[in-house]
Design brief:
Number of helices of chain A: 5
Largest interface: A-B, 35 and 41 residues
Strand order of the largest sheet of chain A: 1-2-3-6-4-5
Number of domains of chain B: 2
Low-confidence stretches of chain A: none
Helix content of chain A: 25-40%
Distance between the termini of chain B: 37 Å
Largest sheet of chain B: 3 strands, antiparallel
Radius of gyration of chain A: 20 Å
Oligomer: heterodimer
Order of helices and strands of chain A: HHEEEHEEHEH
Strand content of chain A: 15-25%
Chain lengths: ~160, ~300
């Protein structure tokens, strides 16, 4: 009995070490995230007009004459000042994260989504590590086609 | 009296027989701390090499980067567990609990490590007939678990909030130094030098507090004392000193680009680390040097 219990203890130590050593899935490198975002926008017919910052791009859709802004923002609130600075009566904001689209960033909802996805990633049910960035779209209110579109396809 | 002695002998004989078929409590505790310790440090190494194979030199760096007091805390826990030998047999609860720890740690993330540390701390604290020197270590295990949670993304929103307060304090301090500065959320803009800094969650004054608390606890126990009410003002002073040191660092960072480079990426990094280390050591030593605490611990923590 003692030997069996000792063997079980050794086994859980080895399995624990093995689970740490197994190479994890792809990380959330910012360039990868921005590159993937550009690809998804172009797939939607959006033409990229420029990158004001490494985490921000200006796009133009064939469905609207006015350009719009897309930014990758930290989900932990460190980019709250960027969110505040892009708010305007003429702008409609959309926040896209892990398949969900919301009109405003809810820290609690984002954290729960991140925690759930991280847990699934850690036990192998999710291939990619969940990103620490969400996509924020600042869309012209005048372009109803854009504000009502399903932007979940841009999900990081 | 005679029948009582016979009864004791029977119990002892039964205990010997049972000990042959069941692990001792001491050995089970050693297994438990090994299971959690291996997973804890393997996770530290993995977190420092996301997606890469860790080289041997990288492993050593990862262990040291995790914090001197984490290494010290684990050393103290291992030493106390190893010294706490007894002749008792392990309870089924302790054996099953140890296996549950191993199962929790199969999830390769930091938070399961925190959960396992807290469970182990609870086991050690609630187990009967545990030597006091070992039972004290439950607080260190809880502190290690709390440190992981405190530095995890789950608590990041709190640090972001504190960072915005830090930004206001920094701009106010810069104002007292005669420089014109303003803060917006977690950004400090020094108009005098046209230089801005962003205070990230891991740069906020709240971020190192769990580490400071752990250092305090470990040093108090290392000096052979229990945690007492009289120590709490010293702990509070240690936390306040850490906050003040962070605010001073943020002011130095926000002074200008040259100062920023010196304190953020130059020799200032080592100076800051040494001062932080010195303060973390100073307060628990002062706390345990008070005359009222000179004697041995009266009761366990």
């Amino acid at each position: 009995m003692k030997t069996l219990v000792r063997a079980a203890f050794v086994l859980v130590i080895l399995l624990g070490l093995a689970s740490q050593v197994i190479r994890p899935g792809r990380g959330d490198d910012d360039r990868d995230t921005m590159g993937a975002l550009v690809g998804r926008l172009e797939h939607q017919g959006v033409q990229i007009e420029g990158f004001p910052t490494p985490q921000t791009l200006i796009g133009r859709s064939p469905r609207c004459e006015q350009p719009f802004l897309v930014a990758l923002l930290a989900i932990d609130g460190t980019d709250d000042n960027a969110i505040a600075s892009s708010a305007s009566p003429e702008i409609v904001q959309r926040y896209v994260y892990l398949g969900a689209v919301a009109p405003a960033p809810s820290r609690a909802a984002l954290t729960l989504r991140w925690a759930w996805a991280t847990w699934r990633f850690n036990i192998g049910l999710r291939q990619d590590k969940p990103p620490h960035r969400l996509a924020m779209l600042a869309l012209p209110r005048a372009c109803a086609d854009l504000t009502t579109a399903d932007w979940s396809v841009l999900s990081p | 009296m005679g029948s009582s002695e016979q009864g004791d002998s029977a119990i002892m004989a039964g205990s010997v027989v049972q000990r042959r078929t069941r692990l001792g409590a001491y050995e089970t505790r050693i297994w438990a701390i090994l299971i959690v310790g291996f997973a804890f440090w393997a996770n530290v190494v993995r977190a420092s090499h996301p997606g890469d194979e860790a080289a041997f030199a990288g492993i050593a760096n990862a262990v040291l980067d995790n914090g001197a007091f984490d290494v010290f805390a684990w050393g103290l826990v291992l030493a106390r567990f190893a010294a706490g030998r007894d002749d008792l047999r392990a309870t089924p609860r302790a054996i099953v609990g140890t296996l549950v720890l191993g199962i929790i740690l199969l999830i390769p993330a930091r938070l399961p490590c925190a959960l396992a540390l807290a469970v182990l701390g609870g086991m050690v604290r609630t187990e009967r007939n545990v030597p006091d020197s070992v039972r004290q270590m439950s607080l260190v295990l809880f502190a290690l678990a709390f440190e992981i949670v405190w530095m995890s993304p789950i608590v990041a929103p709190l640090h972001v909030l504190v960072a915005s307060v830090d930004a206001r304090i920094t701009s106010a301090l810069l104002g007292t130094l005669g420089e014109t500065a303003a803060s917006h959320a977690n950004v400090v803009e020094n108009s005098a030098t046209a230089f801005s800094i962003v205070i990230w969650n891991f740069c906020s004054s709240s971020f190192p507090l769990a580490d400071v608390g752990l250092a305090f606890l470990v040093l108090v126990f290392y000096r052979g004392q229990s945690l007492r009410i009289a120590h709490l003002p010293w702990l509070a002073a240690s936390l306040v000193a850490s906050v003040v040191l962070t605010e001073i660092r943020l002011v130095l960072l926000a002074t200008g680009e040259a100062s920023y480079q010196w304190w953020h990426s130059g020799p200032g990094v080592s100076i800051y680390a040494l001062v932080a280390l010195g303060l973390s050591v100073l307060f628990p030593i002062l706390a345990t040097s008070a005359p009222a605490d000179a004697g041995p611990a009266a009761r366990p923590a």
